[in-house]
Amino acid sequence: MTLSIYRNGVVVESVTIDDTAKLSQSFMGGNYLNVPLTVTRKLDVLPLDYVFFEGERYTLYDEPESRVFDGMIDYTLIFHAPADR
């Protein structure tokens, strides 16, 4: 599945996600989309970028976590539902 990441209404990245991407929902803990990625280049992703997943908009509020290993970059992107912040 391809996930488009938007900034001000424009797609800034399109990434392929697999079944490790996970939507987490809890009564008191909020709703968020956890997207782990491994890529070969630095992503152009900033806080306040957003995605649409299952008809909902999820926003990245924090700087993405990343680490470099053997020329690959592992990212953990956590996008939050509007009521989560």
Fold and architecture overview:
The protein is mainly β. 0% of the residues lie in helices and 60% in strands. The chain is built from no helices and eight strands. Strands 3, 4, 5, 6, 7 and 8 form a six-stranded antiparallel β-sheet that branches. It has a two-stranded antiparallel ribbon with strand order 1-2. The termini are far apart. The model has no long low-confidence stretch (mean pLDDT 87).
Task: Give a short synopsis of this structure.
The chain is an all-beta fold. It has strands at residues 2-7, 10-16, 22-26, 30-39, 50-53, 56-60, 65-69, 72-80.
Give the ordered list of helices and strands: EEEEEEEE
Rough shape? globular
Low-confidence stretches: none
Classification by helices and strands: mainly beta
Question: What would you report as the Rg, rounded to the nearest angstrom?
Answer: 13 Å
Continuous helix count: 0
Kindly state the percentage of residues in helix.
under 10%
Number of E-type strands: 8
Mean pLDDT across every amino acid position: 87
Sheet with the most strands? 6 strands, antiparallel
Report the β-strand fraction as a percent range: over 45%
Features:
six-stranded antiparallel sheet, two-stranded antiparallel ribbon, 8 strands, mainly beta, 85 residues
Question: Secondary-structure blueprint of this entry?
Answer:
Layout: E1 2-7, E2 10-16, E3 22-26, E4 30-39, E5 50-53, E6 56-60, E7 65-69, E8 72-80
Antiparallel strand pairs: 1-2, 3-4, 4-8, 5-6, 6-8, 7-8
